[in-house]
Amino acid sequence: LLMYFGTEMYQSVDKKQRILYERSCTDCFCCLLFTAFLGGMIFVGVIALQEGNPHRLYRGYNYNGRLCGEGTLEGRPLLFWPIAPLEVLANITTTEKFVRLDVVNSTSPPDYTPGTVLGTYAGFIDPSTPICVKKCPSALNVVNNDTVRYPMRHTTTGEVAETDPSRDTVSETTTLTYVDTPVYATTKLMHAYCLPTNATVAKDLIARIGLDSHTQQFQRAIGSLEEGWPFVLIGAVCALLGGFLYLLLLSCCAAPMVWIATVMIPVSMLGMGAYLTYSGFVEQSDYLVNTFGEDSSEWTKWVGVALMVAGVLFSMLICCACDSINIAIGVIEAAVECLFDIPKMLTTPLFGFVSQGLAYLMLCVGLVYIVSSGTMESKTITALGTGSNAPDAIPIQGIHRHFHLDDRLTGFALYWFFGGLWVVEFMAAFWQFVASYGVALWYFTLPEPGSNDRSVSCPIYYGVKAAALFHVGTLAIGSFIIATCRFIKYLLEIVKKRIQSATGGENGVVSCLIRCMQGCISCFQWCAEYVNSNAYIECVINSVSFCPAAAQAVARLIKAAPAVVFLNGFSKIFSLLGVLSIGLSTSWGMYALMTTVKPFNDPADDWFVESPLVVGAFVLIIALSLSSLVMLVFDQTADTIFYCFLVERDENNSEVYAPNRLRTLLADQSGKQMQIAQERAENAKMREMDRMTYI
What we know:
The radius of gyration is 35 Å and the shape is elongated. A hairpin with a 6-residue loop joins strand 5 and strand 6. By secondary structure, the chain is of the alpha+beta class. The protein is built from 22 helices and twelve strands.
């Protein structure tokens, strides 16, 4: 309220004070709609929490289809496949449907001959009769000769006479008895299943029950990460330092780097075009013949000519767009200067990623509860390793299941999924607005006398306050557009999967149409994201609603189209170059350190890293992520400074806020605009005089 009623007080102050205090609520109706939609999500979430049970998604089922750890099986959450007792083995002719415990080198257990003495009773695991246990049996339980109860079914068949003598009814009676059978040493998997400790037996059982899991490799990777955590930490620090050093390099060498990249593009086009043209018209290259065949000369001629024409046109464009290139250079230098003046802005993408991660977590958890609310059936399938059509295929129980959602739950799932996407995009727009707010404050802050430093206090705090108090509706509109595009693309993918499942294969026509639709939506989404970004900046500066802000942003960008093209091209190139160089150099350095320095490559040393490749890959992921954060802030800062430059150029105020390099360009642009305006005024005056003379 103080900020709102303070607008009258600051009507005549400078641009920075107007950004801070002259704010009004925008798109209030959309804010109410967004709030109501969130209320609907809360309603759906409460129902899902009451009806859903995530345990139904991953916990096992026992032999009669009951969920472990629930109902009468409460306190027994783990699924265990017991050893088949001798009574069961005595009635079979082969053990192909079982997993032998004493197998060492073979994954296919040999046949069992009835009556053969099993010695110490190594036994055969029965995958078709799982039971629920309180905890997984260990080696100590084996030593203590502990047992579990194996359920045995006995079915008797009889005939029941009907009143109609022409019909007979056959009845079956099933009785269940329990037989004690010894346990074997197991380890817990996914907090739900008990698998044999013996690696060979576990691999055989996993293959037969359909749990295609590389447990050993995963455990080895985790162990290597535990050993190599110092390298991960050092790599993260090096990535952050590399990001700052790269920004420092841009601040010192932005102009040479931009002009080198600009000149290299037409030079490479002309060189490649000349080579292909010469190969096509004069002497065909052996490399092209070996690579593309004897008929390569025909298309190399036209490709070479096209590249040479494109190179000439691009060279002419560079000559005509020197002012736009200088603006791009000035914006890049100003962006680096801004980040060094207010390094707090580097934390905004971190806040954005955390908030988006929480939104994705909310989306996934909600979908899990909604899906687990449906009707679920435990499915008995045959093992993947033996084939479902084989006569001796192993029946598997306790793992696989099928869910059915009625119309109500399907509607809840779609509503929650779209709402989750909307919240994720809203979080991205929110922190994008905050970053642009801080950069705009920096741009419209006059430097201190005798210095180029621009002091901005608490930019993130003021940005969060402005976005949360005044512009939730504006951010909701922009995020709604992007979320709708993503939602439609996901729906098209689901439709394609359903059609493939119904027809038994891929329909080429339908797949082509769906891909075309997805491509069109992706193109629209890319354009909308760019317009949204600049509309948020317009809202930061002038506190206007989304539609006027988007229209004004498009008008400004079209007016400065050449500079927009060069700035986006150079900023994307430099960002990609920075991310790749920092990530690859950091991971390579850590990998070289682990493989060449003796304490880390000596198996006898406590600092030995067993899998340096795994640690190096993890360091690469961390380095790429951290350097991407720095480059993301750089891109947003450059876009905001460029838009502020366009606003200042259009308004032509008495105060000049632009940084040093942009200030000279602003004066040149303003002088040219004033000259053009004077010429237009003189031409209009001459036309009016001619008209009066004619009259």
